[in-house]
Specification:
- The protein is mainly alpha-helical.
- The chain is built from seven helices and no strands.
- α2 runs parallel beside α5 and α5 runs antiparallel to α6.
- The longest helix is centred in the C-terminal third of the chain and has 32 residues.
Length: 160
């Protein structure tokens, strides 16, 4: 169990690196990899399903620290994503109950809430077309990551 926390921290660092390079950007739209990470973390990994509140807070501290170091001027986005992760933690056992459907709910609701709150803070218009395209991209990327994570989970569960 103790080796999983450093692995999760390293994954957050790698995801923030990918987020900064905008490697997966298509036509100006990039997936929210941090949102996808937390959605998959709570629905497809045994560590995420059993993680206690304090483990989540430590992960969020690592995330906020790295985010602040890499993207200091977008701190409100990090705060919104952290609040969304806390919301995912709070609702992880209260949704549909099927991990795949819970993933879809987390990603769709998370994308809408992220842009709704961020645009409200900046008094910017909510662009349904752009947000809809990113939501579709987030869902597709999230499903792909979820499938890989569940296959890895099943593989390693069978080996122990």
């Amino acid at each position: 169990m103790f080796y999983k926390f450093p692995v999760a921290c390293a994954l957050i660092a790698f995801i923030l690196f990918l987020e900064g390079t905008r490697m997966f950007q298509i036509s100006g739209i990039a997936p929210n990899l941090v949102l996808i990470f937390f959605a998959v973390f709570f629905t497809a990994t045994a560590f995420g399903e059993r993680a206690g509140f304090w483990v989540l807070l430590l992960l969020l501290c690592v995330f906020m620290t790295l985010y602040r170091l890499l993207f200091g001027f977008w701190i409100e986005s990090a705060v919104i994503l952290s609040l969304l992760a806390l919301g995912m933690y709070a609702f992880r056992r209260k949704l549909v109950g099927t991990p795949f459907l819970d993933l879809l709910v987390f990603i769709i609701a998370g994308t809408l809430l992220f842009y709704g709150v961020r645009d409200a803070l900046h008094a910017a218009p909510f662009l349904f077309g752009v947000v809809g395209m990113e939501m579709l991209y987030n869902v597709l990327a999230g499903v792909l990551v979820w499938l890989v994570a569940t296959q890895l989970r099943n593989y390693y569960a069978g080996r122990s």
